[in-house]
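Entry 14. Ran structure prediction on the chain below.
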Amino acid sequence: MTLRKIMFAIIALTVVAAMAAFGQESKSDAKKDAPKELKNQTHCPVMGGKIDSTVYTDIQGQRVYHCCPMCIAKLKAEPDKYFRKAAAEGVLFQNIQTACPVSGETLEDKTVFSDFEGRRVYFCCNKCKSMFPKDAQKYLKKLDEQKPAPKEEKKESTGHEGHNHG
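Output, structure tokens:
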């Protein structure tokens, strides 16, 4: 082999290696940027039992359901522990926010949000969303000061309205 062919082979291998490394990096970045699939809460974050929809804690803008009343105090004592656990398991708690934690403005629509350590936090705008991580604990405490959104209740029909009984 001539020196020219050897140099060409080295350059070609370097280009192939660089392309492979770049391809791996972009795949890794895509996985990192892809939103994690979240699921609704079905089990108590404290004891792991099936939730009882009548036993819950409203904390940091989230409604967290429990398996029994004894779990309430444990969640309140160490909320970050249980929120992080839920985040690791891909659990999304019911959001009960009524206002932006940064500006205090009433949330007209819930389109701007961030998932933070097991909590889905809604904001009035992207500027507030970008300010949140700088002092998240301060803003989470503000969420505890808000009145929660009313609990959604299933209404049962007692008549025949809506059945077109003419």
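The longest strand covers residues 52-59. Will compare against last week's run tomorrow.
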